[in-house]
Amino acid sequence: MLKPALRPVLTGGLLALGIASAAQAQVATTDVVPGGTPGWTFAAAPYLWTPTIGGQMTSVAPNGQTVTTNTSISFGDYLSDINFAAQLGGAARYDRFSILTDLVYMNQSMTGSETKPTRVNPGTGPIDIPAALTLGTGTHLSAGTWSLAGGYTVLSGDWGNIDAVAGIRMLFINSTTNLALTTNITTPNGSLALGKSTTLTLNTTKVEGIGGITGRINIPNSQFYIPFYLDAGGGAVPFTWQAYAAIAYKASSWADVSAGYRYMMFQNGSSTQGVQHLDFSGLILAANIKF
């Protein structure tokens, strides 16, 4: 495991997925006016995103019971729990056409209050788990989002540009939670619903179709501009959406820096195994390198 002092450094070098992205505000931009530069142009954007994370998941216990857990990770928890993280955006443009991609990945070890079991279903119906019965939890989580989208510039000028985008976003989660309760949970007829020492697992990959807009608004007579991104869609998880906006500075002909805010959400709402609700939100710092 990485020393705590090194974790923020690695996170800044790449990501946190993140979870988003989930994933994926497309933070990379080639900064090219359509029709102004022949051939392909490219950009890469390593960034730092340390979001707060909230979610509700349904995992599986060894005997087949499903257990619903609530997860809440603050900014401070995120930095102390992270083992490894990577975040990177990329873009390629040819005239009005563009290709955008974004990756967020994180590997975390969580103990204490970040994960709380709330309900077990042994197959005969849900049974609430009172908070007072939880002695402790320990969770190892590997999760991330990856997105790939194509874009087309629909409006452009000295003021900036707006592109329509469409593509996919993939959410992947692999978690193991060791759960300790003060006592067994039983059904109304006295049979065992959940043992007081249990391991919960969740391994799922969800693919969503997305569509939206992205672009930039130039601030007149300055090197500053406002990049933005907005999408929504659905698929294996019925609904997902993401928004990103920042203030960026053109530091040189080949590099920009920006600071902004990013939000990503997945919403299921069903009682099936997997993601019921998951959201990531927080400040994002990015370097945009063009070549």
Account of the protein in words:
- There is one protein chain.
- By secondary structure, the protein is mainly β.
- The protein has a single domain (4-119, 141-173, 205-290), classed as Lipocalin (Beta Barrel).
- The protein has helices at residues 7-13, 75-81, and strands at residues 40-49, 52-60, 66-73, 82-94, 97-111, 115-121, 127-128, 134-157, 160-181, 185-186, 192-194, 197-218, 224-235, 239-250, 255-267, 274-290.
- The strands form two sheets. The chain has a ten-stranded antiparallel beta barrel with strand order 1-4-5-8-9-12-13-14-15-16.
- The longest helix has 7 residues, at 7-13.
- It is elongated, with a radius of gyration of 21 Å.
- The CATH topology corresponds to Lipocalin
Shape: elongated
Supply the CATH architecture: Beta Barrel
CATH class: Mainly Beta
* Average of per-residue pLDDT values: 85
Low-confidence stretches: 1-25
Strand content: over 45%
- What is the tally of beta strands? 16
Distance from N terminus to C terminus (CA atoms, Å) equals 35 Å
Count of DSSP helices?
2
Q: What characterizes the major β-sheet?
A: 10 strands, antiparallel, barrel
Q: Spatial order of the strands in the main sheet?
A: 1-4-5-8-9-12-13-14-15-16
Q: Order of helices and strands, N to C? A: HEEEHEEEEEEEEEEEEE
Structural class: mainly beta
Overall tally of structural domains? 1
